[in-house]
Amino acid sequence: MKNVTVTAPGKLLLMGDHAVVYGRPCLVTAVSERMSVCVEQSPDGQLHFDMPEHVDTRFVSRALETARAHWRLPISDITIRTASQFSGNVGLGSSAAVTVGMIAALREYLGKKDSLKTLFTLSYRTILDVQGKGSGFDAAAALFGGTLYFVTAGKTIEPLSVNNMRLIVGFTGVKADTVTLVREVEEKMKAQPERVNRIYDAIAKLVEEAKPKMVEGDWERVGKLMDFNQEYLRDLGVSSEKLESLIAASKKAGAWGAKLSGAGGGDCMIALVSDDKQPAVQEAITQAGGQVIHISPNAQGARIEP
Ligand code: PMV
Fold first, then answer.
1. How far apart are CA 100 and CA 303, in angstroms?
2. Which of helix, strand or coil describes residue 288?
3. How far is residue 187 CA from its own chain's centroid?
4. Cα(284)–Cα(280) distance, integer angstroms
5. Does 100 contact ligand 1 (Cβ within 6 A)?
6. Three-class DSSP category at 155
7. How far does the centroid of ligand 1 lie from the alpha carbon of residue 110, in Å?
């Protein structure tokens, strides 16, 4: 039976969170934890799904709808199997990874030749259909991999040559509700557009400065810029006590910089560290009640597995 397996990486938003929903840039890196999507011809000619509990089925079903509409095919005789290396619900981008995995696996299965840009558009559309609002940064990271400079909706997707970036990830133990947080921020934007736009412009400036500094490997400066970014996110009201305590602990233990990553409210914080400070920062996060998630950044984008 014909079958195709694609794996796609998760992501960490390095800088530019929330602002990237509103026309500003962000920096995102793909991480080593991957989602696997296998599409196989069903022996009984029926559609079947075989997915572990923590994979959000809405994205898989919607991606199938997107693919049917795009390729004008019924696609109703396949079995879709997903498997995930993601550590549960920690906000590392499993929804985007499964969406990209589905779209890329279906292209291959159907023998189509659509470009990566088209795959991005299809994946992003699927995510918007399910969650209503979003920048698409997560789909770009899952598809292209590496570390990217990304502007809202993929207006710019620029791969950056970043080496030796050491990140420690601390999970707060609280699953963030991205959709609700993005909506709350939208309400703030409606109520105080000048204030929120000022914050976003300031964040965009930090991202622009961090971009070349990351390529140069000036981690001390990048860390400072991440700290400034965190101050603006706090002003925006998306941080939490737990995030703040993990961030403070990692700074005290010698991190170059630290901030929340993603929508905020919970999920993970990231700390940028030098090699020698790595153990102390991990220990400090654990002592402060966080769970260290072991990932490496700059992971390869979606790929067909043998
Ligand atoms: O919560 P996450 O990891 O899915 O990140 C959301 C990041 C936002 O900027 C708040 C939304 C977006 O789509 O860019």
1. 10
2. coil
3. 23
4. 6
5. no
6. coil
7. 31
Give the active site residue among 50, 56, 138, 235: 138
Q: Is 13 in the pocket of ligand 1 (CB under 6 A)?
A: yes
Q: If you average pLDDT over every residue of the chain, what do you get?
A: 96
Kindly report, residue by residue over 118-157, the tens digit of the pLDDT: 999 999 999 999 999 999 999 999 999 999 999 999 999 9
Q: Ligand 1: does its nearest atom lie under 6 Å from the Cβ of 250?
A: no
Please tell me the distance from the alpha carbon of residue 217 to that of residue 213, in angstroms, as a whole number. 6
Contact status, residue 139 vs residue 145, Cβ threshold 8 Å: no
Pick the CATH number of 167-293 from 3.20.20.70, 3.20.20.300, 3.40.50.2000, 3.30.70.890: 3.30.70.890
- The reply to whether 138 belongs to the active site is yes
Average pLDDT over residues 193-210: 98
Ligand 1, residues 120, 126, 178: which to mutate, most atoms within 8 A of Cβ?
A: 178
For residue 67, the model assigns a pLDDT of 98
SS3 125: helix
User: For ligand 1, is residue 298 a contact (CB within 6 Å)?
Assistant: no
pLDDT in tens, 203-232: 999 999 999 999 999 999 999 999 999 999
Dist. CA 2 → ligand 1 center (Å): 36
Give the position, in ligand 1's atom list, of the atom nearest the Cα of 95: 4
β-pair type (48-50, 78-84): parallel
Is the Cα dihedral 285, 290, 294, 298 positive or negative? negative
Task: Assign domain 3-161+298-305 one CATH number from 3.30.230.10, 3.40.30.10, 3.40.50.2300, 3.40.50.300.
Answer: 3.30.230.10
Of residues 185, 285, 199, the one with CA closest to residue 242: 285
Res. 86: pLDDT tops 90:
no
